[in-house]
Amino acid sequence: MDKATEDRIEYLVGSGKVVVSADDETIAAMVQEAVKSGRTASFYVSREQSARIRDAHWTPELIEASNLEPVSSEEKASIEAELGISDIGRFRFGSFSCESGHRFGALAFLRQGIREHGVDSVRSIFEMKNSALLRVNPHFVVHCPECDQRMDGGITYEGDTYGGCSYPDPPVCR
Fold first, then answer.
1. 147 phi and psi, to 5 degrees?
2. Which among 26, 37, 54, 59 is placed 20 to 30 Å from 155, CA to CA?
3. Which residues contact 171 (CB under 8 A, 6 or more apart)?
4. Are the beta carbons of 166 and 137 closer than 8 angstroms?
5. pLDDT interval class at 174 (50, 70, 90)
């Protein structure tokens, strides 16, 4: 390992994070355990590890129950035109509606991500070449883009470089 890599690891660990290196089966088991436990965690894994975890996790039954669907070409065009994110790849999102019937889809999700983290941060996730970010059991507080109704709970999404699942799905309106 080179000195620059060691310095980055030292920085991350010093800021309260952990860096884990393990074989693919161990990484997959760690992610699966986090999902089952309900604990929140973020994993930066290789694209191959992400694909292995995705294939094991997203059964046809879970995809259907989560309303997980590919982002339409129309919504992708809106994401590019409005947010400047030109390629979200093979991103799927479990859209849902507030009590008033307004849809919360991938565009609204990415809008909120940009408000909270900035466009460069969101764009960089979709531009990753060797890794993927898996968010396990993240808790989101979202607001309907139409009526500003607060919705708490789980959001389900997944793609080549960015995936997440949380329960209950869909979020509960408040």
1. -115, 0
2. 26
3. 96, 104, 140, 142, 151, 152, 153, 154, 155
4. yes
5. very low
Contact present, 28 and 49 (Cβ < 8 Å): yes
Torsion of CA 124, 126, 130, 135, to 10 degrees: 90
Beta bridge partners of 96: 104
pTM metric for this prediction: 0.85
**What is the residue type of 11?**
Y
- List, in sequence order, the alpha helices (H) in the chain: 3-14, 24-37, 47-57, 60-65, 73-78, 106-117, 119-126
Count of C-beta atoms within a 10 Å radius of residue 155: 24
